[in-house]
Amino acid sequence: MAIKNSPLIAQYLRIKEKVPDAVLFFRLGDFYEMFFEDAELGARVLDIQLTSRSKDGVPLCGIPYHAAQPYIAKLLKAGHKVAICEQAAQDQNARGLMPRQIVRVVTPGTATEELVLSADQKSFLLALYPSGDAVGLAAIDVSTGEFLFASLSDDAGLEEEVTRLEPREIVVPRGLEPLPPFFARLRCTITRLDDSHFAAAAARQVLARRVGGEASIDGEPAAIAAGAALLYLEETFGEDLGHLRAPRPLRITQHLLIDDVSRRHLELTVSSDGARQGSLLAVLDETLTPVGARTLANWIVYPLLDVAAINRRLDAVDEFVSGDLGGPAPDALKLIGDLERLAGRIGSLRASPRDCAHLGRALEAVGALGESLGACRADLVRDLVERLAPPSEAIAIVTATLGDDPPVDPHDGNVIRTGFNPQVDELRMLARDARGVLARLETRERDRTSIASLKVRYNQVFGYYIEVTKTHLDRVPPDYERKQTLVGAERFTTPELKELERKILSAESGLKELELQLFTRMLRDLTRFTPAIQENAGAVGELDALLSLARVARRRGYVRPVLDESTRLLIHEGRHPVLEAGLKRGEFVPNDLDVDPDERQLLLITGPNMAGKSTYLRQVALIVIMAQMGAFVPAAHAQLGIVDRIFTRIGARDDLRRGESTFMVEMRETARLLAGLSPRSLLLLDEVGRGTSTFDGLAIAWAIAEHLHDRSRAKVLFATHFHELTDLARERPRVKNLSMAVREWGGEVVFLRRVVEGAANRSYGIEVARLAGLPDGVVARAREILANLEQGELDEAGMPRLAHGRRQGPSAPQMGLFAPAESRIVEELKLIELERLTPIEAFNILARLSTKAHGNE
Ligand code: ADP
């Protein structure tokens, strides 16, 4: 650029160079200004006015510094980072340009601003370091100090763990290309860091500095990832990381595996439209604290495998459900708030006076929570109650130091309690006293001058003054010094007033200064309680989650599942928790399940669209997940062998509009899930093969079902509208046919939503056509064609072709070309539910069938 930059712009550009990928908030007086491209971007994203500097035409926009939070939140949500550049310590006498420096870079993974975080979700920064066959992973939630690590050995495991953590930001080595394809789905910020961040020596140092050394993390790749995460945090969040907890290994093998796609299909934490409403979490979450909400969400995503561990939770829920739901415990919980993030703000020295005052009240409520649950007998509850040990010293410090209603900003004054510090009391007295003195001075001057309208006042620019209106100027005494002239009045001061002014102002500013000092000292002192507060918060979260499960179980009539080491799943009158919650009591039709690897391994569920197949599949998965997270389940009875992984493959029905590639995706995912199945695995396949034309779709569905039966003992629920598949049950011993009951009623087809043994009615579509009033001739012809198709005599173009061996087993239906009259009677007979008929109805039906059989209808 030809234009010579002003010193300010030159300074800006120097600083901006350090943070090329962040929007730079450049502090100028009371504003954060953005320049150049940042200004253009800021104006667009933040919807504020773009202007330009009059001197040099540099594009510019700005926001008031004290209201920056919502703007930062908005930029982060739009996927940007924000670098905050402040004016460094000002020397009053220094001339020229104010020194400035970046004090913080707010990125999606390192933000602790409440406006950016959501109360019921963790906020992880992830670092990944691939090395040889392994990938080191570290995850830090800087808002709470949670710190996890893992060494992962394959791509599938990596995808699993990363998607479960739902990171806000991932840091990777700059050279890592290409990125794993699933990154695209995460919709989180990817930050590439130089190799220096991923060096073993640097990792050792920063781990030693922050968490007592690398010994706390096994596996070099994980230690290096952890080092990179910490270095990045130091650069962005800053050095105050006293709230970081000891790193914990992520124990992948201790949890029920549910891949990301399945998690979304099952709508565990968000529903298909991305909202929380309509998810399993929304039904189960009646927690009263944000820590509890995050704990419960975590349990849903990480169900357990260990029967004993699950029973510990179930025992706790059981005790609450059969007792008084914790009695007064909920009242205590409501007062606690987000103790975990509060601990984070205290440990990182970012807590406000109001936060600290709340800490005192929250810790008292923790004490009350412990008391209200003191008589509980369940093991887990007792352990958790034991962990509720609010540090009374911290409560004492806060109560003694802080006033009753301290402000958010510690610079505002009125922070420290009267009686805590003699100097504070004295300055406060002085400031207050001075006001009295001022009032007395005004009265005295009025008397002395006989000017009744004389006023002693204060303003920001001129300080204290005596104001006399023009009409009384002749009475002003000679010791008054003129300060300012207005249209109708003159303002004066006196030596006495000057002295008073000095005292008042210095008392007030001295007071604020001192209060800030004392507050900061208290905050530093409180940091030693951070681990204890975090420990309490953790226990509060679990108790809150358990109590929430208990309340939901009681209200919705859930029962305690029985878990064992078998491989059988037995559910009596199971319900879909989310669908049921949206219906009136009794409207949801419960269904049973009996599946096991030895006898009933693959259940083929046939039935028309909208009959309830997919609901049935999902409800089975949800019941299993609920049971293994330690919740009661929506059923009359459930006896469940532990499931180690759940896969769902929902066919293309719902995403046809997304085009051809969906079928590819479907097949790719299906291919993946065919590997690594055990008798403990549960597969839910819904409308597989639907994304392509009828015949190859059917062929694929058939082959997959065969494969699952022949090559694995995984439990499979296979819902399909391909009726032909039901023949598989004749050839494969562990395949059983189930169907969704439908029934004709008053000229309509009614879905009974009941799962019954046996295959569905083949000619359902034709029945509907008949009911809809299609001419008899057409219906009859349709039956003929159906029969032909069933015999495999015709292909999809209606042309004859050779029959294939496999489908024509010895018991394949042998219907003659002119069978429709009989078959129609048989179909009608199948639809009849004898137990629901009155004798008269039964007689009428018999009469009609008899007429039909005689061929004169
Ligand atoms: P399919 O998969 O067979 O096409 P769905 O499972 O999508 O059918 O069910 C269709 C609709 O039927 C659901 O949206 C729900 O409203 C209702 N439904 C399904 N199962 C039940 C049930 N057991 N009780 C009551 N309503 C149900």
Describe the 3D structure.
This protein is α/β, with parallel strands linked by helices. Strands 13-23-24-25-21-26-27 form a seven-stranded mixed β-sheet, sandwiched between helices. The longest helix has 32 residues, at 495-526. It starts with 6 loop residues before the first helix and ends with a helix. The model is unreliable at 653-660 and 798-819 (pLDDT under 50). Bound molecules: adenosine-5'-diphosphate. Residues 579, 588-589, 607, 609-615, 753 line the site of adenosine-5'-diphosphate.
Helix/strand/pairing category: alpha/beta
Low-confidence stretches: 653-660, 798-819
Major sheet details: 7 strands, mixed
Number of helical segments?
A: 28
Q: Tell me the span between the first and last alpha carbons.
A: 95 Å
User: What is the typical, i.e. mean, pLDDT?
Assistant: 86
How are strands sequenced across the largest beta sheet?
Answer: 13-23-24-25-21-26-27
Briefly characterize the structure.
With about 850 residues, the protein is of the alpha/beta class. The chain contains 28 helices and 27 strands.
Keywords:
single chain, 857 residues, alpha/beta, 7-stranded mixed sheet, 6-stranded mixed sheet, 28 helices, 27 strands, 18% strand, binds adenosine-5'-diphosphate
